[in-house]
Design brief:
The protein is elongated, with a radius of gyration of 28 Å. It contains 21 helices and six strands. The mean pLDDT is 87. A four-stranded mixed sheet has the order 3-4-5-6, covered by helices on one side. Strands 1-2 form a two-stranded antiparallel ribbon. With 487 residues, the chain is an alpha/beta fold. Helix 4 packs antiparallel against helix 13 (272-289), helix 5 (112-134) runs parallel beside helix 18 and helix 8 packs antiparallel against helix 9. InterPro entries: SLC26A/SulP_dom, SLC26A/SulP_fam. It is found in: Membrane. Keywords: Membrane, Transmembrane, Transmembrane helix. It comes from Streptomyces bluensis.
Length: 487
């Protein structure tokens, strides 16, 4: 057996670690998304067994992600749980199509600032929303209302014994996760999230705290494939926008995660188009089961690599362990306090915000930092889809602006002709600036314009330069001479 599968021992051990990391996250993401906890496990199972068996990225682990929590919650609130399966199914089919058309690599062309801004905006909304859940309160619908309502929620919580007990469980969960990394390495073989939930559950049971716990329906009862009525929702334009948002965000997050995971190991590199198809296959199955959407998840993926995984067997086995847990021990979910899961999501949301990276980005590339911040603010202030579109639009505008950058250097030695060197990209966007600078040159001196430093000269600029050269010189002065090897 070991001869046929030389890495079985390492993969088996890694799969147990990934299972222990994935279990509380699957449940937490489902509860925060407003769907039955079991559906988070279903998505984790499909991500492990279906997506895990496919080619693409060998060590990357897929499942329900905190990054889609806000979007799923909005979709379930607006269209209902029955429509979620149709949305996820359509997302999977779109991903399969894009992978077949070899569009996977194009997602890597999306500005990193847009993706980081998207994750930061999601993180802010998750933190704000889960603070209410940690206190046992109902969160407002919009991101701005969540943030604006926090002071009032704090006042309400301070006046309620139940809310204070709930907050204590949530705060304790976060504290355990933060402090867990400072323990000896042997203790850290148990993932911090699992330890935090286990301790919170133990404290809740032993002390009989008045906190809400996870509602359990049973695995088979939670799976509700979309009916024919749900497919009728596809005629709704707003649901089509939600499908596009799911597709864009899930694909971008998965492929960016793949690039990050590739930097963590020396094994086979990711085949991006195949990975996109693997994600599409997983989401298609999840949609058919009425479950949550999946993405590749960097936390589980990095845990898989660090635990010593060598092949895709580890992620497949982690899906098997999730399936066995869901089938044999589903009642244990009913013991988990909801504020403990809120604490896990708050911790995950905090890690989505690139505080250190933003400072460095502002110092080096302020334009990119601005795109990141505006994308995040747009997601909080408007919604997920429109916030991402705002970020993409700003990224395109910035790229167009930089692509039209041009520099004019004038050298006047006092005698002989004035030399003007143009370099960069001469496009119609910068035409007024070019002409203003050239027309300011003296008309009673010979002028030589060198265009050899231009990377691009569009038709509008070429025509304008020729017209300027014909009319600029005074009657008794040599005509402007233009030299260029630009096509």
């Amino acid at each position: 057996m070991l001869t046929k599968f030389p890495h079985l021992r390492q993969d088996f051990a890694a799969s147990l670690v990934v299972f222990l990391v994935a279990l509380p996250l699957c449940v937490g993401v489902a509860v925060a998304s407003g769907v039955p906890a079991e559906l988070g496990l279903v998505t984790g199972i499909v991500g492990g067994i279906v997506t895990g068996l496919m080619r693409g990225s060998s060590l990357q682990v897929s499942g329900p992600a905190a990054g889609l929590t806000v979007l799923v919650f909005e979709a379930v609130t607006e269209f209902g749980l029955a429509a979620l399966g149709v949305i996820v199914l359509a997302t999977g089919l779109l991903q399969l199509t894009m992978g077949a058309l070899k569009l996977g690599r194009w997602f890597r062309a999306i500005s990193v600032s847009v993706v980081e801004g998207m994750l930061a905006g999601i993180g802010l909304v998750i933190i704000a929303g889960q603070l209410y859940a940690a206190a046992g309160l109902t969160a407002p619908a919009s991101g701005l209302d969540k943030i604006a309502g926090l002071p009032r929620a704090a006042v309400d919580a301070l006046g309620s014994t139940g809310a204070l007990a709930s907050l204590a469980i949530g705060a304790g969960t976060i504290a355990v996760m933060v402090l867990w990394k400072r323990l000896p390495k042997k203790a850290q073989t148990v993932p911090g999230a699992l330890a935090a939930v286990a301790l919170a559950t133990l404290a809740s049971v032993v002390l009989s705290l008045p906190v809400a716990t996870v509602e359990v329906k049973g695995l088979l009862d939670s799976i509700q494939p979309p009916g024919f009525d749900a497919f009728g929702e596809l005629a709704n334009l707003s649901i089509l926008g939600t499908i596009l948002a799911f597709t864009l965000i899930a694909s971008a997050e998965s492929l960016f995660s793949a690039a990050a995971v590739d930097r963590l190991h020396d094994g086979p590199r990711t085949e991006y188009d195949k990975e996109l198809m693997a994600q599409g296959a997983g989401n298609t199955v999840c949609g058919a089961l009425g479950a949550l959407p999946m993405t590749a998840v960097i936390v589980r993926s990095s845990a898989n690599v660090q635990a010593g995984a060598k092949t895709k067997a580890s992620r497949v086995l982690h899906g098997v362990w999730l399936l066995l847990f869901a089938a044999l021990l589903p009642s244990t979910l009913a013991l988990i306090p909801i504020p403990a899961l809120a604490g896990i999501l708050i911790h995950a949301g905090w890690k989505l915000i690139p505080f250190r990276g933003l400072v460095g980005l502002w110092r080096a590339h302020r334009g990119e930092a601005l795109i990141l911040v505006v994308t995040a603010v747009g997601i909080v202030a408007v919604n997920m889809f429109e916030g991402v579109l705002i970020g993409l639009a700003l990224s395109v505008i910035k790229t167009a602006w930089e692509a039209s950058h041009i520099k004019l250097e004038v050298i006047d030695k006092g005698a002989g002709p004035i030399q003007a060197y143009l370099s960069g990209n001469a496009t119609f966007l910068r035409l007024p600036k070019i002409l203003d600078s050239l027309e300011a040159l003296p008309q009673d001196r010979p002028i030589e314009v060198d265009l050899s430093g231009l990377h691009h000269l569009d038709h509008a600029c070429r025509t304008a330069l020729e017209n300027w050269a014909e009319r600029h010189s005074a009657p008794d002065t040599e005509p402007v001479r233009v030299t260029s090897d630009t096509a």
